[in-house]
Amino acid sequence: MLFPDDFSTWEQTFQELMQEEKPGAKWSLHLDKNIVPDGAALGWRQHQQTVLGRDTMDTGR
């Protein structure tokens, strides 16, 4: 479940990336609280993506 503070983080990241791609363009994200897992409406598909990462910075520890 996406909480409001998570959405703020996503929105900020989205805005930063969009300004790099299209400076001056106006974009907005809207949280649709009607979307539920495994409940895709007719004609829509559900997709889940998993991402793994690791810290590659050498901290000297």
Commentary on this structure:
This protein has 61 residues and is mostly helical. 30% of the residues lie in helices and 0% in strands. It has 1 helix and no strands. The longest helix is centred in the first third of the chain and has 18 residues, at 4-21. The mean pLDDT is 79.
Give the helix/strand layout.
Elements: H1 4-21
Protein name: Receptor transporter protein 4
Return residue spans where pLDDT drops below 50 for at least 5 consecutive residues. none
Number of helices, where a helix is a run of at least 4 consecutive DSSP H or I residues: 1
Overall pLDDT score: 79
- The radius of gyration computed from the alpha-carbon positions, rounded to a whole number of angstroms, is 16 Å
Protein name: Receptor transporter protein 4
InterPro entries: R-trans_p
Organism: Mus musculus (Mouse)
Summed up, what is this model?
InterPro entries: R-trans_p. This is Receptor transporter protein 4. It is built from 1 helix and no strands.
Which key features would you list for this structure?
61 residues, extended, mainly alpha, 1 helix
